[in-house]
């Protein structure tokens, strides 16, 4: 097995920034950075001590791996735009299938998907981030696992179908739970109550997943079948029609799930 | 101001258990425990080194404060059942108004509402739990704040209207966000993917509220107006009608909120 030592980053956003940093820290070399925006490519290249370009036709082939870390919409066209097809290539998205690489004519390809929300230049302990990989073949899987294990303690394989499921599940677990926090904040602010008062409760709620399943941890008026409180809450939300609709739908569903419990 | 030194716990559930423990630790005395279920009263009384009863008519008046920590449905009838009206009384609920005490004929009364989900016999750092209080008068407020400040670093006053808002906001921020975790877990399990893979992401999502508002932290396909991914997800959920309905409603709302952004 030829070890991957030199990596080319296609993209200069949050994911590319974090991957570049953590690869360097773990003894790998970044060979080149491409970004459509020359300034972004140059800035990241400077941090990673490598060359840069904003022209896909200048992405060179003296490298061991292309990592495409761009928005889902751009992955296919960027993959088409790279001149060389004989270098292994991966993308970092949960939502785009592996098949786009075959369609673009690559021989060795895969997925390198970190399951985390990576914020701009906010350092994270990458070793704790689950890394899901998928590969076109066994040889390349060994190569990719080698670099994955260098940066994360939690590497596992998912096929494209499973990765799509993880992606939609993450929308519920993260984007929608954050939206629930947002509704709470809005209701409090409209009544001059600082959001601070709910923070310990939110932390405890998220902390519980360490010890018990969300199914076991579910609490609240719907679980207690406390219809008087539910009616009270719906009445309080009568001037917040959207929130009322969400409250009602989620409550009805929790009531149904727990009938089966 | 007469300091409160001896407390009677009306109820022997999670809230009574935690309050009893933390009062004892902070130099207050528990005088008596009442529970409808004699065994529960006896068990908690043994831990708190005090007397107990399962008869409301035996709740005695050689005490400085009654704390009613029973389910919302039972608060009014328990308050009615205590023979003495000249001892100050509080309840610990976010959802029941203070007026029930006036209706029952008490002179000094209030609310002592810890904003936390207290699990059975799982010790918590009570000093970090926000305690919301409300009182019938200024004298009693001073007395109640005195014991509140002994056990929590975060004591504040809310009137009954505000407390109702906090309670409904907590349903969104905690019960509903946990339900989002539950949906994610269900989707993953049906596809043989361990829920473990999402835990770091959930922790990070909840952790973000420390540094930025949920409004600023909102991410995901709806925020990016990524209609292709949204359509994909809705298509994947076509056999999970309830989840599809929730996905659609929440996404439509996030799209609308962020139009205004």
What does this structure look like?
2 copies of one chain form a homodimer. With 261 residues, chain A is an alpha/beta fold. Helix content of chain A is 48%, strand content 13%. Chain A is built from 10 helices and 8 strands. Chain A has an 8-stranded mixed β-sheet, sandwiched between helices. In chain A, strand 2 (29-34), helix 2 (38-48) and strand 3 form a beta-alpha-beta unit. Chain A is elongated. The termini of chain A are far apart. The mean pLDDT of chain A is 94. Chains A and B meet through helix 6, helix 7, helix 8, helix 9 and helix 10 of A and helix 6, helix 7, helix 8, helix 9 and helix 10 of B.
Ranges of chain A where pLDDT stays below 50 over 5 or more residues in a row are none
Helix-strand pattern of chain A = EHEHEEHEHEEHEHHHHH
Largest interface: A-B, 89 and 89 residues
Helix content of chain A: 40-55%
Strand arrangement, largest sheet of chain A?
A: 3-2-1-4-5-6-7-8
Could you state the oligomeric state of the chains shown?
A: homodimer
Note the gap between the termini of chain A: 51 Å
Helices and strands, with pairings:
The structure is a homodimer of 261-residue chains.
Chain A lengths: L5 E5 L3 H12 L3 E6 L3 H11 L2 E3 L11 E4 L3 H10 L7 E3 L7 H5 L5 E6 L16 E5 L2 H14 L3 E3 L2 H30 L9 H9 L6 H4 L9 H10 L4 H20 L1
Parallel strand pairs in A: 1-2, 1-4, 2-3, 4-5, 5-6, 7-8
Antiparallel strand pairs in A: 6-7
